[in-house]
Amino acid sequence: MLDRQKSDGSISDRDLMVQVAAGDRRAFEQLARRHAAAILRLTRAVTGQAATAEDALQQTLLSVYQSASAFRAESSVRTWMLTIARNAAYRIRAKSDRQSLVEERLMELGLGAGWGSGDPETIALAAERKDTLLRALSTLSVQDQEALILRDIEGLQASEAAALLGIGERALKSRLHRARLRLAAALRRESEMSASAQEGPQL
Amino acid sequence: MNEKTVAGLQCSEVLALLSEYLDHELDSAMVERVEGHLLGCPNCERFGRSFGSMVVSLRRDSIASESVDSELVMRLLTQIDRLTTEA
To answer: Would you say residue A179 lies in a domain?
Structure first.
């Protein structure tokens, strides 16, 4: 994917990287501000905690600053930074638990998502509320969140996201589809909880 | 879920292909079959429409354009300055 060209004429990521490699602190600050939110979204998904996600963000920025001259433009600057961020977040996460992956059958995932139910519209309505959508996203596994963040929120191409995650494109597409179905199921749960909270206690 | 076969595809096959259909990753012959199934299967059509809307919501600009607290970035940059100066 091409680096984001700013319509307001501001400098591109690659030009900023050249300046950072030359020791330009202001260019580094600009680059950090531009990508910090995307990095934090990904590191929070991996570590599961705001504090450790910030640690991973700091390690990422430090790596970028120290290895700017090693950037070879084989990928976009954003993809390069997200790759560093993911590695940093996993190093932090490795100190805690390891998550087991249990593959569910696709039809079971579909049924959980409301496929064949009487009210499949529930997921679209719940997803329209940004806070509900983000809350549902946060309940998913790290692998599911990574796929959704990289492909649907950050808009990386399938080939870029697959390379970043160290898997093939076919596996990435399968992971993304399963993640979307689990997100739909999580949205249904959020919607049900919200409905029962509004009903209040039964007297 | 009552499985139906419409346009040569079962409902479960359409369920498996939905993301690739939404992401424009299917070849034209398969797109035609999926769309033929959706036209003839109200259950899959309703679910597919809602599922597609969810993906559009996830891609909306307001999520990707969220910014990080300016103070956090400044604090981290200050720490990095200290670390690189000490090194």
So the answer is: yes
Answer whether B1 sits within 8 Å of A152, measured CB to CB: no
Point out the domain boundary residue: A43, A73, A94.
A94
Q: Which residues of B touch A155 (CB under 8 A)?
A: 59, 64
Check CB contact under 8 Å for B16 and A177: yes
Residues A138 and A177 in one domain: yes
Structural domain boundaries, residue A154: 106-199
The SS3 of residue B21 is helix
Q: Which of B49, B57, B66 sits opposite A127 (nearest CB)?
A: B57
Residue where the block lists tokens 């992401």 = B23
Q: Answer yes or no: is A146 within a domain.
A: yes
Radius of gyration of chain A (CA): 19
| Mean per-residue pLDDT pooled into runs of 10, chain A (203 residues) | 52 92 91 93 87 88 91 89 94 64 73 91 93 93 94 93 89 94 96 80 56
**Secondary structure class of B9 (helix, strand, coil):** strand
Using alpha carbons, select from A61, A60, A80 the residue that is nearest to residue A72: A80
Could you tell me if A59 and A116 lie in one domain? no
A21 at B interface, C-beta within 8 A: no
Tell me the C-alpha distance between A107 and B1, whole Å: 10
- Give the whole-angstrom CA distance, residue B29 versus residue A161: 27
- Do A114 and A183 fall into the same domain? yes
Q: What is the ipTM of this complex?
A: 0.86
Residues of chain A in contact with residue B73, where contact means CB-CB under 8 angstroms, are: 29, 32-33, 36
Angle A42-A20-A64 (CA atoms, 0-180°, nearest 5)?
Answer: 30
